[in-house]
Records
---
Amino acid sequence: MNYWLMKSEPTECSVDDALAAPAATVPWTGVRNYQARNFMRDAMRVGDGVLFYHSSCAEPGIVGIARVASASRPDPTQFDPKSPYFDPASTPVAPRWLLVDVQVLRKIPPLPLTELRTRPELADLLVLKRGNRLSITPVAPHHWQAIT
């Protein structure tokens, strides 16, 4: 089993939005970074653990525990000219961008970024590294255990 930290802007899809969705499951649309896409395509498996992280908000941090609920598949937003995630170079025959479904298992008391930075056992958690802006990052088993 692998573990992941997946960032979502709460104005796009909050942990509460995900919990309110059917089966508490949402498609993780809008990933437009090749490395993050490759994580979904090559390494994510159904059942992998997910730390649901709110980003680009007043208090960024981990707000839920989730799991990968589907294999990767083409992200339909890349084909929709009305979507902010539209990619005119991507075609249904050769899609560039993928998504996985994420099922929220439970909401947790927020673990703000500021608190994560104070915990020595999380010092090398990728989301804490300077310059890291990836929306999906792998999480080491010891980090997963420390957080959950």
---
Amino acid sequence: MQIEQAFDGLAPNRRTLLKSAAFGLFAFKVAGADMLLSPAEARARRAALSKLSAEDAARLEAFGEALVPGARAAGLAHFVDANLARPHGESLLTVRYLDVLPPHHTFYKAGLAALDAASRAVLGGPFEGVSAAAARPLIAAMLPGTIAPWTGPPPALFYLAVRSDAADLVYGTRAAFARMQVPYMAHIEPATDW
């Protein structure tokens, strides 16, 4: 039985949404219908975004893919968007733990706008339009804070938040450990996968 079918008939309430997080599912709207999907499925089905614009999503996916290969296919933009739509206490985003005050969508939007401005100034075009190889010097300048121009949140903080979200999504599950052929040996076994 598919996980999607396990929630058939359940009203989209807080309890259902919390249960869905145990399976790594989030509420998305596809062709006007509410569905519980993984971020990768939401991306494949072109689920509607609620907090990020299409441009923001493309830029976030390009940045995430440059930092953690596989982030785009794993549905990074949908993962971030779904978590931005959740109450602060239920968000799985790394920014929640970095002392960044909510609302967090302003953090991501400001960081993505600053990344775009820096890319246009340094690389001559939008970040999502350049290759990962061409973007490396720009990304490398984020950590020491030497990226210019930059008008968003501290560039190293933005880098850390997006990289951590992408790594959590791509590598942070038992399935990812199995794909990498690495034994999953948690110090404290989680009650469920997310």
---
Amino acid sequence: MDTTLNLVQGSGLGLRRSFLTEVIENPLNEVDFFEVAPENWIPIGGKLGKQFRAMTERYDFICHGLSLSIGSSDPLDENFVSDVKNFMREHQIKFYSEHLSYCSHEGHLYDLMPIPFTGEAVTHVANRIKRVQDILEQRIAIENVSYYAAPGQEMDEIDFFNAVINEADCDVLIDINNIYVNSVNHGYDAESFLKAIPAKRIAYAHIAGHYVEADDFLVDTHGATIVDPVWKLLGKAYELYGVFPTLLERDFNIPALDELAKEVQTIKSIQQAWSAEHERLSA
């Protein structure tokens, strides 16, 4: 089974239809790779389909799923996984990642729901991840998610996350903003969580903005600029594990393309600074 590690490099951006034409006409030098939700692009043809093909011929791409519902008790949608496999082959997309959550129960729930942190859930989810990997014939990356309640909790979030990753033998999509949001909402230390991530399994990272509902309640919206504590946490991750590919997510209140480019450039600047630091320390 192919590994997903090290298949993209540098700094990335989530591609959205709203700026597809603009980014084709005005390429972003800061962006090394793009990410798309396959659900939003598999059925696309016509002009948009041709534009997307032009992008995948020029840049490296990752698929980041929204609807696999890996933690659901519903049957795994193997037809969808096969569609993703064909889509990835058609566009030479590097690999696939998904959320450690579920979004269906006898129908779609249209939100990412938290999986109970239990031993039974570990086995259930890991088996489903293994099946996805068997169909795709490659390892996938699983993302730590933001959550606002922990029903039926038997273990800490990090212990649950690591147990799933180890039992499924999959890779990690580390979401820096989700770590920060959860640390505030659930009262744990973000750096301690970060230090417990299985470093050798990190394929790439997400970073995004959030909404401040209250001092002790943050909402992961992907609809705002990234705040300093999240940037600092990204730097801490590079300090601990070396520099890994990192992608900016922005789904709402999408600003002008030059503003997105500035945040991607911030990622690149932090990567370059920590690469230089690691080189200095190893000299």
